[in-house]
Amino acid sequence: MSLNRRDFLLFMGSAIATTACQATVSTKPGTTPTNVATPFNPKLVGVGFQPIQGPIPLETSGFPIADQIVNLARYEVKDDLILPEGYSYQVIGSWGDRIGNSRFGYNNDYLSFVETAPNEGFLTINFEYISGSAWIQNYAKVIGKTLPIAPIEKALKTSKDGIDAFSLPADNPLRQQIQTVCKEALIDQGLGVISVKRKADGTWERTNSKNDRRITGISGLDDGNYLACTGPAKQVFLKKSGQGYLDKIGDKIIGTFGNCAGGTTPWGTVLSAEENIQSQVPEAVYADGTSFPPKAMTVSIGSEEVSGQGNVFGLAGNKYGWIVELDPANPKDYGTKHTWLGRYRHEAVGVRVVEGKPIAFYSGCDRRGGHIYKFVSRDNATKPTDKANSKLLQDGMLYAAKFNADGTGKWIALKSDTVINPDLPSEHVGGMIPLPQRPEGGFAAIKDDQKIAEYKQKYKTLGDLYQGDKTEKQGAILIDAHYAANAVGATCTARPEDTEIAPDGSLYIAFTSGSPSKTDGSPDRRIFKGPKGETPYEYGFITHLVEDQNAPDALTFKWSMLALGGESTGFSNPDNLMIDAQQNVWVVCDMASDKTNKPPRSEKELAPNLPDQRGLFGNNNMWCIPTKGDHAGKAHLFAIGPMESELTGPIMSGDGRSLFLSVQHPGETNGTRQNMNFDTRSFELQGAEGKTWSQLRQVPIGSNFPDLKPNAPTKPSVVVITRKDGKGIAG
To answer: Is the pTM of this model over 0.70?
Structure first.
């Protein structure tokens, strides 16, 4: 697919710039503000559906901006999945539903649909993490049993650094209580495979085949269904002794968790990306690739997450943070972690297979200052649909991307003889770069440019930073891929969240946020900046990368910054991308749950680029961007998610008539909506020619999705969207 830069930028300029003010007006439950926005009846524009109206006026709504402003003076946010006229959704599965001998997990993310016959196939679902408050609040109602939360919370009050349950005696009541909670939380993560079929009336049903199964965060612990592994890190796992912690089960791996985005191979396997594992196990490793001990990540319970779930089970941190390959058609397959693909906070996998060429797998590390990576297989692919291609993932090379300010770039191999050449901290938005720390292990936060010169003098190549024989050293580099990539000068980026291959072989990358972190790092200020060169730039970027000679194994590339999120675009924080058969680009957004529909707290926060400005954009949403025709490059609002949710993992059926979509963490901040409670909040927005206008926005407090009944528990769910006329989603 070829995406014209001018057209894409036209899309990015199609919305009205906005700002906000601080006022929030409480409204009693059961009351409704008058003059709520009236329905629009504009002409169909740009795509095969009538775009829906969000809280911000858009030219692509097909209605005069001035009239939109009048109608939007009162705007009601809905706790539901809002779709265009003529579309409907059906819930395929929700947290707690039965899958095989287990249950539908929590916070469903990436979806893969592998068709086995017309109108049927395997839907594979990632279950990413636990939203602390909402999960605890609704667990008993949904799962039907209680959790011993109270004694753990009591113990945590006297232990500000969390609880090292692993060091407690096996018969200690507190350890047993923690084990119960952490086991249930890990069961609610991982992967699920369900069989689905489309009926004659166009709706979908589960067929509950023998292939339906769960791979959880504790698979293998009690049932023997361990995950397998390949590649150099396997030799590190097999070590009998080392600098750090060994779990004593060799190359067997207990479970998978933090499963965020992913990809599907042409040969019908699913790739699941383990992302934020640092919240559950120690991420840091020693020079030989062995893990920091379990006590380095203690158990804690917070409003956002239950952390340290791997501690009580003594999970080795170096076994998490990988890409898991799963064949949904093989009921005995519980997943394989291919370590040549690298260990970091994976977000998505772009798969490129060209017959007679090495295969290329692209992925990003979703942290502030994370990198873009490419794995190139040693051997060539034969037929793209041949399942033997999985063996190509067992040997090759992992590269990290170096973006130059002139629009060129190169791939840097993560191997022993690669020269140490970190960027300067001053070149980063946050003024810091984390580098491998020796002999202590882990990383050191370098803030002084002079320290970089000293580091390069002390360590000449990656081989100087890691230990072991040839294979073990390569394994240690892959285990510590993020910090190794920092050491060789790979570009620190703005939270890469998706890597999507276009039909022409080029790569589109969604970078979600350009803000810095005090511990993780920050993006390169020369690359990731706002429309006026400002840094930090919170609202995100979309980048287009083309390999030289369009070769999957090329070591150089060209790139361009095609789009920026922000107040002038109508949306913020682009996340997952999808390209359909008509070459439309679909974008879902990932604004923090506690920022949605939240006005700034003070006049000072009216300054640009602050995360709190995200409240202007309403709930997280989904957009369709045509790439050809008269409306190429213009964004059309297709869906708005329920309260405090994130829409993730969009995937089409082969005929384009069904769109599977995850509704993740509804009610994440406020939990279950009680008694239909809502607030009315005041926003002041900036319209054309700098004129301001006011909006009263009715905002539900919490969520009752998907049941939508008063006080119903909120549950992450997977839905399928169809058109009532049976045509394709995009017309």
So the answer is: yes
